[in-house]
C-alpha cells in the first residue's frame, strides 16, 4: 500500500470530538495557518489522518486527556514513518459548545513541528 501521507501533512489545528472525529481543521504551513480544510471533516483523525506508525501512542495520550481532568496538556510526540522520526509539539485543550456545558467532549489539538 502506497502512502500519500507525510509527517508535515498532519501539522495544523484540529477540533476533535471525544472519539477522535475531526470537526474542524486548519493545516499549518511555514507561513502560518492556511484556510480551513473541509475535505477531512468527519473523518477519524487517528485512523485516516495521523499516519504515524506509532499513532496508537498518540491516541492513547488523547484518550487519557479526554478521561482526565486537566484543562490543557502540552507534550512532544515522535512520529515514526518508515524509520524516520519527526518530532512534533502537541497542545491539547478542552472546548465547550456552550458556557454551561463542561463535559469536555471537544478537544482543540494544535500540532507543530518541534524545534
What does the model show?
The protein is 16% helix and 40% strand. It has 115 residues and is an alpha+beta fold. It has a single domain (7-113), classed as PAS domain (Beta-Lactamase). It has a 6-stranded antiparallel β-sheet with strand order 3-2-1-6-5-4, with helices on one face. The relative contact order is 0.23.
Short description:
The protein is of the alpha+beta class. It has a single domain (7-113), classed as Beta-Lactamase (2-Layer Sandwich).
What is the helix content? 10-25%
So what's the CATH class? Alpha Beta
Tally of distinct domains: 1
Question: The biggest beta sheet, please?
Answer: 6 strands, antiparallel
Proportion of residues in extended strands: 35-45%
Number of strands: 6
Strand order of the largest sheet: 3-2-1-6-5-4
Briefly note the CATH topology name: Beta-Lactamase
> Judging by the overall fold, what is the CATH architecture?
2-Layer Sandwich
CATH superfamily: PAS domain
Order of helices and strands: EEEHHEEE
Count of separate DSSP helical elements: 2
Which tags fit this structure?
globular; 6 strands; 115 residues; alpha+beta
